[in-house]
Amino acid sequence: MYKTLVGGLLAAAAFTLSHSTALAQPEIVSGPAAEADCFAPWAADTKFFKFPKKDGPYRIALANGYIANTWRIQMIQTAKAYAAQPDVAAKLKEFKVVSTGEDVPAQISAINNFIDSGYDAIVVNAQNPTAFGPVIKRAKQAGVVLVAFDNILDTQDAINVNVDQKGLGVLWANWLAKHLPDGGKVLEVRGVAGTSVDTDRHNGIHETLDATGKKWDVVEVLGKWDDPTAQKATADAIAVHKKFDGITAQGGDTGVVQAMIDAKHPFVPFGGETENGFRKFCAKYAGEGLKCSSAGTGPAQVAVAIKTAIAALEGQVVPQSIKLPLAIVEDPNFKEGQDFYPDQSDNFFVGNAFPTCGIDFTAQEIMGQSKENQ
Q: Which pLDDT tens digits describe the chain residue by residue (374 residues)?
């Protein structure tokens, strides 16, 4: 009798677990996405998900890692601004934000805590693309929608939202190759080591330069996408190497140019990000040799990630991997009031609109939010 009872309980538990796990899996369906112009698939063979519909309002969390630069701070502010918009706020019971720094286990722990606390969806800017396997599995089994953006996850069991980061490196390298037809010595200011964004952009730069067949001498320094860090790294590199023929930087670009000015280094072709201060410099010093390609995606991609999470919870069809457009402006097309804003902070990232997603922010909306956990 005892064995029969125990066996029956175990069988029931196993059925419940397998049944709940099955319910947690998104159905693979045919495209297009519910909002095809916004949720653009990464490639022709990208899968489309349809999650079981949940009734709102929803509890959604943002699990951020690194926070010590202006892009990440603006990203947190943008997430809060988006969650506060009336149409979005009406769908949210709770919106939680946590930043855990560069500690990968701490970020994984935060995601686990959100799963255990019953959140409906978790949006993550991952510190490492490959370290999250167990927590991805837990989210899937718990029926939690997991959306990674910017620094994405190396998995097809979560939704990824990103720009073509490797393509961005390709774009910058092509800009340098165009302006340095004979090759030359290039300073590469990298981002945060170990992240997918840094790796992808770096690979795009080097593969493209190598493919030109020209002779390139690339000096790498770490700028952590941060103006003061990038400025010091650039100043140190100039002190050691004296002269560069071109520069590419993943972020902290305003600091990189300031280091050139301080060291009286001649202006050279530059492939960089979308900081307002960098673009101000590009417009001001174009006639003196600072020929710029400024491209990237503003921190507003976090809003697309949150929008994607809500759509998935509502049972809408979404791609497993979503490709966002780049914001690009290149010399000589820097226009005041459109591509850069003299009255805004140098640290403000331009390009905080995704019109196809109905997402746009004023500087005031973003800067009115805090960077703190909530």
A: 434 444 444 444 443 443 334 445 799 999 999 999 999 999 999 999 999 999 999 999 999 999 888 899 999 999 999 999 999 999 999 999 999 999 999 999 999 999 999 999 999 999 999 999 999 999 999 999 999 999 999 999 999 999 999 999 999 999 999 999 999 999 999 999 999 999 999 999 999 999 999 999 999 999 999 999 999 999 999 999 999 999 999 999 999 999 999 999 999 999 999 999 999 999 999 999 999 999 998 899 999 999 999 999 999 999 999 999 988 999 999 999 989 999 888 988 888 889 899 998 887 888 889 888 87
Task: Quote the CA–CA distance of 141 and 153 in Å, as a whole number.
Answer: 17
Which among 247, 312, 255 has a CA at the least distance from the CA of 60? 312
User: Whole-model pTM above 0.90?
Assistant: no
| Distance, C-alpha 215 to centroid of its chain | 32
Q: Which residues of 239-256 are buried (b: 16+ CB within 10 A; e: fewer)?
A: eeeeebbbbbbbbbbbbb
CA 7 to mean position of chain CA atoms: 49
Give the three-class secondary structure for 238.
Answer: helix
What string of DSSP letters covers 11-23? HHHHHHHHHHHHH
Tokens coding 18? 């397998």
What are 6's two structure tokens?
A: 């125990």
For 272, phi then psi, to 5°, come to -145, -170
Q: How many beta carbons lie within 10 A of that of residue 47, not counting itself?
A: 15
Q: How many CA atoms lie within 13 A of 369 on its CB side?
A: 24
DSSP 291-343: -EEEEE--TTHHHHHHHHHHHHHTT-EEESEEEPPPEEEETT---BTTTB-TT
Q: How far is CA 22 from the centre of its chain?
A: 31
| Share in percent of the chain as helix, strand, coil (round to 5) | 40, 20, 35
Furthest-apart CA atoms within the chain: distance in Å: 90
State the CB neighbour count (10 A cutoff) for residue 23: 11
